[in-house]
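This week, work through this protein record:
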Amino acid sequence: MLANEVAGYLLVQDELTQARNEAATLCARLPWLTTGQAEDLSRHYVQQRLGLTRQALKATADRAERLRGEYEHRYSQLRSALLRRHAAFACVLLGCLPMASLLTR
């Protein structure tokens, strides 16, 4: 879906901005770095941070998929049990119906 793709894109852009800000803050705390060293450190930091974010999101998505499977399986079990109970009740009700008609005569 387009909405999911846009949301994903915005999430990545937000993470990228945050990672760049954190890298800039880190480099500012290390005033002895040359411009080239600071740029290199920033680039490595951003790559590492985005990699960690990607891993965390993948782990979350994998967990959500496992939970979805577990919930679907449990829902199927509960639905089957409910249908069996309804069928049994209907059988009992239909079985008692002729007796009830005999008693009312």
In short: The CA atoms of residues 7 and 13 lie 10 Å apart. The mean pLDDT is 92. The first helix runs from residue 2 to 28.
